[in-house]
Amino acid sequence: MLRSVKQFGIVFGLLAGFSMAAPAWAHAFPVKSSPQVGATEASAPKQVRIWFDADLNALFSKITVESGAGQVVNTGGSQVPASNPRLLETNLKPLAPGQYWVQWSVVARDGHHTEGKFPFNVK
Known about the structure:
This protein is about 15% helix and about 40% strand. It is α+β, with helices and mostly antiparallel strands. The chain has a single domain (about 30-120), classed as Sandwich (Immunoglobulin-like). A hairpin with a 7-residue loop joins strand 5 (about 75-80) and strand 6 (about 85-90). It is elongated, with a radius of gyration of 22 Å.
């Protein structure tokens, strides 16, 4: 009888553990960017590009680039090229020397949202 109770306890514990295990989430996180995070560029970039570790939903993913004074300096919207669903990019106005902030917000194809912000400088 005691052996049956122990076996029941072990099986119950394993089932409870499996049922409470966290599901695998597939958020999209940046793996690299151009310009790089915190970089000082000798000449103004014409584009900001961020590569992610998961495919993006183009409809809900965007980049906004602001000057140190808070003015938006990207032109138009953001694009996820059909040839690379893990790349998000936007074009920039001609930039003066100074610090700029890149704010990104993406939704992975599985619906999970991530966002972040990083600076770069132009000499």
